[in-house]
Amino acid sequence: MTYQPQQQYPPPQQYPAPQQYAAPPQQTTPIAQQPLPVKVAWGDSPTPMTCTNCNTQQTSVPTKKVGCMSWIIVGVVAFVLFDLVLWPCIPCAFLALLINGLKDTHHVCPNCNHVNGVKKMV
Ligand SMILES: [Zn+2]
Q1: In the predicted model, is pLDDT for residue 106 greater than 90?
Q2: How far is the CA of 50 from the centre of ligand 1 (A)?
Q3: pLDDT given for residue 40 in this prediction
Q4: Ligand 1 being an ion, which residues bring their Cβ within 5 A of it?
Q5: Cα(47) to centroid of ligand 1, in Å?
Q6: What residue spans define the domains of the chain?
Q7: CA distance 116 to 107
Q8: Do 48 and 77 meet the contact criterion of CB atoms below 8 Å apart?
Q9: Residue 122 — pLDDT band, cuts 50, 70, 90?
Q10: Ligand 1 center from residue 31 Cα (angstroms)
């Protein structure tokens, strides 16, 4: 009987290959990107825009608000009614405040409710 010494193989050593990634010189030329203030022609309908507050692309939500034009009409109508001695009817002049066509249109961002533009009647 021959003694067979148990051969012990050393576990294969794993040398971590020295990894040296020479990072390619990434030249990122800083582009001076200054967003030009885009002049939006505000109308009465929803308008695509970039919100100046939250900087996202949104479609504005037009909301009607009483503006100068409404009050001018109220004044004119009240003056005419006053002139015609229809004094009890003078409060009716304030109905002009309800006419949407006379109101300013505020374009509100649906994301942050920021008013981005106003279409004024006057
Ligand atoms: Zn916004």
Answers
A1: yes
A2: 8
A3: 75
A4: 51, 53-54, 109, 111-112, 114
A5: 13
A6: 44-67+103-122, 68-102
A7: 6
A8: no
A9: confident
A10: 25
